[in-house]
Amino acid sequence: MQRDDAFLRAWHDTATRALDPEDDDRVRPPLQFRTLWISDLHLGTPGCQARALLDFLKHTECETLFLVGDIIDGWQLKRHWYWPQAHNDVIQKLLRKARKGTRVIFIPGNHDEFARKYLHHNFGGIDVAEEWIHETADGRKLWIIHGDLFDGVIQCAKWLAYVGDSLYEFTLKLNRHLNSLRARLGLPYWSLSKYLKGKVKRAVSYVGDFEVAVAREARKRGAQGVVCGHIHHAEMRDIDGILYCNDGDWVESLTALAEHADGTLEIIDWAQHMPVPTKATPQREAVAA
Hints:
By secondary structure, the chain is α/β, with parallel strands linked by helices. It is built from eight helices and twelve strands.
């Protein structure tokens, strides 16, 4: 059996027999939301900030949790198997939330496209869907999609995306060494990839084109807004009368999109909610969209 199928089988088996440890952090009460959206976790890569993600999952509760693609990085797992205990803990935490009553909906992205073979299936209480229409508490319809279908590089030159992913991985290794030195000097974490994205005009133009394309498609589908991931750029803004929301990622920005009980939406920067790390806390960098 191929590794992708074996992983999904292991996910299902874990749901029936594994119980993750009880949370040992009882000091911080969980934040309550109606709906949460997270994407681009990239489990299976050194860039995934799994411990920050576990902190988020421990200290938030919601009725519905959307996993908006690139949850597992199948691209990099095929090149090199990397699956530390913290990544397994994330999967167990998600399964535990589903067991305890949270509705969890997984919309695969391009990095975990292997899961698209299992659309309309359920793994350990987690529904797999291609897309979703979510109605907020105040009656707005939001179209939920990962977003890679609106990425010209992915659709027209997938080989280029793979090359870019390999080059990006090299940049991340360089950045980890840089941040190791910064940590020894007592300096805070700094994202080289995020800095480069902000400086390269073509990257900025790409983000803008992507956002407009996704918002235009949401309008065609009769939705008042759209929630997506893919580009690792958290954003919430109006685009020609359509509310565009991107929940960001868990390798660079540590962000999520949240809906409150009254339907109000906001982007959560979880780095502002976490305890201040010590100098010895290792920092991780991102992976390509």
